[in-house]
């Protein structure tokens, strides 16, 4: 097949008809070439994923796995070497789709001499929003991301966590249907990280579709409905988080008020049924939950120290 015939075949690929599919990639691939057109690196190979309306979809993988390339292909910032990407049923290269997308990059490129209000007003102008709507929307978003007290401070005075917050507000200025978030909690302390994750879940519950890319595995586990794991440009795993994390050959039982004698009876019963008692102990929490419990405990006297 000639090169022109291949391009024609690819261009005529049928767009998805399922209106619940917000993002779809079909055999999507990207090869980076050097100045002479020689193959330099195969960044993405035959990626097939679907992101459904109203879900938080996680894109995971080590550096160089193809996550950034995938995001750029979905946004239409790169052209694929093979396959197609569709967003809202349109080819990803169709710029009209961008009106319905909000994007928080890993590094927020914001004007440091502007304050929060001026920043959101600037981005609102890019979407041709009327002045009254810009003011109303900016005020809502500044309160939503917890920057009300710092709304008139220049961004150069913001911490990394505060910069991520205003970056998220900027991504939401146009009331997007699809949010693409790249490392949304980077630079945040545990409280800020928890608040950001809670906000992402609330946005999902409000009807937003979210594509989340993160190196923080705890973030993905806490908020994502489904995940795709990439490695060396290939899709290695795809599925629901709860299903992927479930250990199939281990049964877990939670109970309260058991005496040591009762625990021993349960252990004996398991062995009599041919099972093996791997652990029969008190459950543990996570360091994040422990930290948040301690610093957010407002009871008089605080939380008693552990022995």
UniProtKB/TrEMBL annotation:
Residues 23-257 form the ABC transporter domain. It comes from Aureliella helgolandensis. This is Putative ABC transporter ATP-binding protein YxlF. InterPro entries: AAA+_ATPase (IPR003593), ABC_transporter-like_ATP-bd (IPR003439), ABC_Transporter_VariousFunc (IPR051782), P-loop_NTPase (IPR027417). One of its GO terms (molecular function) is ATP hydrolysis activity. The keyword Transferase does not apply. It comes from the Bacteria. Signal peptide: none annotated. PANTHER family: ABC TRANSPORTER ATP-BINDING PROTEIN ALBC-RELATED. SUPFAM superfamilies: P-loop containing nucleoside triphosphate hydrolases (SSF52540). The keyword DNA repair does not apply. SMART domains: AAA. Its EC number is 3.6.3.-. Keywords: ATP-binding, Hydrolase, Nucleotide-binding, Transport.
